[in-house]
TrEMBL record:
It comes from Halolamina pelagica. Gene3D superfamilies: Immunoglobulins. Pfam families: PKD_4. SMART domains: PKD. This is PKD domain protein. Residues 187-234 are annotated as: Disordered.
Length: 234
């Protein structure tokens, strides 16, 4: 938090609330009135942490990008039942919609945590049950969503997606001498051909040696015919 300052509030009557009180945080430039009111608009007043201080003085560091839910009374321990649907195949770079709207809970869903690469790290948090995602590399991908309620109970579902490269032809390229003489060996080079996936012709090498052949040289002969002059008799 900024130097020598805190922001907070004191509320009463929470025990009579019919549902959770939802706090959607916004800090610094994301705050609606950042720069419009005192103690804001510059690095001197920038907030770098969101802390929850309990009545006994203990402190919990909160995620500044996530909503906070406040309930009156005790806590519930029953988690939601997560469900995830979506396409099971996709091309690289293609945005697909992942849908967890089939998730059920006996209370209120608080949000959805998305892990797009099965590394156990949360890649995105959404309040709604759907999100769009595009995979940049091919392969079998596991997407997981953890649906959590407003008490922090969660359940996880996953989906397998087979990501392939779009079926587009390669871009062929061929380098060769502009001319050759008969019986001269020349190198043909296709190594500059490109493809965003894997070419169907992956065996062999991209170069080859060709031997220029042709018909033998044509020989021309010139025949001179002499016609004798007519004889004359006297």
């Amino acid at each position: 938090m900024g130097l020598n300052r805190t922001d907070g509030g004191v509320y009463r009557g929470i025990g009579n609330a019919s549902g959770p009180i939802v706090i959607t945080p916004a800090f610094n430039e994301d705050a609606t009135y950042w720069g419009d009111w005192g103690y804001s608009g510059s690095d001197a007043y920038r907030l770098d942490a969101w802390r929850l201080i309990d009545a006994d003085g203990s402190t919990t560091l909160l995620d500044r990008g996530r909503r906070l839910f406040i309930h009156g009374g005790g806590c519930e321990a029953t988690p939601p039942t997560a469900e995830l649907t979506g396409p099971t195949t996709a091309d690289t770079g293609e945005a697909i919609t992942l849908d967890a709207s089939g998730t059920t809970d006996d209370g209120t869903i608080g949000g959805y945590e998305w892990d797009f690469d099965a590394d156990g790290e949360i890649d995105e948090v959404t309040a709604g049950p759907t999100t769009d995602h595009a995979f940049e590399e091919r392969g079998n991908r596991t997407v997981a969503v953890t649906a959590f309620d407003t008490y922090g109970n969660g359940d996880t579902a996953d989906l397998q997606v087979n990501v392939t490269v779009p079926a587009t032809p390669p871009n062929a390229s061929l380098d060769a001498p502009a001319s050759a003489t008969v019986n001269e060996s020349v190198t043909l080079d296709a190594s500059n051909a490109t493809d965003e996936g894997r070419s169907s012709a992956t065996s062999g090498t991209p170069t080859a040696t060709a031997h220029s052949t042709g018909p033998p040289p044509t020989r021309f002969s010139s025949t001179r015919t002499t016609t004798p002059a007519p004889s004359s008799r006297r």
